[in-house]
Write a structure and sequence with these properties.
Elements: H1 5-11, H2 13-20, E1 37-39, H3 40-47, H4 51-60, E2 66-68, E3 71-75, H5 76-83
Antiparallel strand pairs: 1-3, 2-3
Length: 87
């Protein structure tokens, strides 16, 4: 059997409408200045976890990071939200 695509589109037009209604998630903006961030070492000391665990969580949850010299900074807001239940 052969069908015209235009006829099939008329039968299933509601599917196209659902795709258009999807909302685009807002991108979060972070200040990656040193005063608004923790270093990886500070996170380890504050939450008593290993640095490899911190790195695994940073990668797993797509937390932005910034390296300045020998230090890597991650936003305080994201780290506090991630580990707040463990304090």
């Amino acid at each position: 059997m052969r069908f015209k695509r235009s006829e099939l589109d008329l039968l299933f037009h509601y599917r196209r409408d659902l795709k258009e209604e999807k909302e685009v998630p807002q991108k979060k903006l972070y200040s990656l200045e040193p005063e608004d961030c923790y270093t990886i070492g500070e996170v380890c000391k504050k939450y008593h976890i290993n640095d490899s665990s911190v790195w695994a969580h940073v990668r797993m949850y797509s937390i932005p990071s910034r390296q300045i010299g020998n230090y890597v900074y991650v936003p305080k807001e994201e780290i506090d939200n991630l580990y707040k239940s463990e304090e």
